[in-house]
Amino acid sequence: MKEPSSQQHGSRTVVAIIGAGSIGTGFAVVHASAGRDVVIHDVSKRQRDAVPGQIDSIAADLVDAGLLDENDKNLVARIRVEPSLEEATSGAGFIHECAPEDLDVKRDLVTAIDKYAPDDAVIASASSAIPASEIAENIPGRSRCLVAHPGNPPFLLRTIEIVPAPFTSAEATDSARNLLSQAGMTPILVKKEVRGFVFNRLQGALLREAYCLVRDGVASVEDIDCLVRDGLGLRWSVVGPFEAVDLNTRGGIGRHAKLLGPAYAAMGAERGQDDPWTEDLVHEVEAQRRSVLPLDAWEERVAWRNRRIMSLLAARDAIDEQK
Q1: Segment 259-280 mean pLDDT
Q2: DSSP states of 164-214
Q3: What is the pLDDT of residues 167-198, one digit of tens each?
Q4: Phi and psi at residue 146, in whole multiples of 5°?
């Protein structure tokens, strides 16, 4: 019987990170910044040896940007690099699996982690598209396995998708959400396993269309990047796609769907897509938006959005002037 993960320093859960690539190193920064003790392992000695320098470089940049207090910049002091997988995981309360996106590699690694880790430790794969039900289906401790998929780098993109499998326990899901939230991340619960989850399905939809536009000679790669960087992306850095169109149309998202839904349907049909915005679906989306933002607060929220974008543009201009 393995020891429970009460191997904690005070009230801090020890976090093990398996894989010292950009995601694993980024997670180390997230948890060390939150004051947690971190153990990081990689099969490659070269990767392990590079960890302290990479952490120091990231910490220095965060301090320069005002995102990390000067007094907290010695993150390496809270991170131990461990050459043994068993030693790295045997005392952890939470384990991030950050291996390459290869099903066999992840299955073998999570099987080994399950063997060594305390029985109550959560095992979270940073898989970008492979669901936990494929990675952990035949693992004895599968009920404590799930996906925790971050953006890259996770110390800057603070949303993280929590994707339980049908066999994942509610306790493991809640534990992952709480621990990551306490580390300053924003967990997003994905209610149903779908390949690619939400982040990469949204990103993939835009990329598929972008590739088609280049293929069809409609626009260049640089011009498409410019449109997203200085248009859609600038707006989406303040509000998401549903709120964006909700605020772009007086009367809200229901009116937007009525006015432009047919045009979007025609665009989709050009690509062989048939996913109509039905009346019931629009009603559901509109109801969720109105529960967050009543229409009598619409004008105020539009002004707020504009001020936020102004602040971002001013920050961009200030950075450009420093070059």
Answers
A1: 95
A2: E-TTS-HHHHHHHHHHHHHTT-EEEE-SS--TTTTHHHHHHHHHHHHHHHH
A3: 999 999 999 999 999 999 999 999 999 999 99
A4: -160, 175
Write the DSSP assignment of 261-302 as a string of letters.
Answer: HHHHHHHHHHTT------HHHHHHHHHHHHHHS-GGGHHHHH
Q: Is 161 a catalytic residue?
A: yes
pLDDT per position as a tens digit, 75-101: 999 999 999 999 999 999 999 999 999
- Give CA torsion, residues 251, 257, 260, 263, to 10 deg: 180
Q: Residue 296 is encoded by which pair of tokens?
A: 């009598």
pTM: 0.91
**In the chain, where are the structural domains located?**
8-189, 199-322
161, 243, 270, 279: which is the annotated catalytic residue? 161
Q: Which helix H or strand E contains 306, and what residues bound it? A: helix 298-322
We find that the CATH architecture of domain 8-189 is: 3-Layer(aba) Sandwich (3.40)
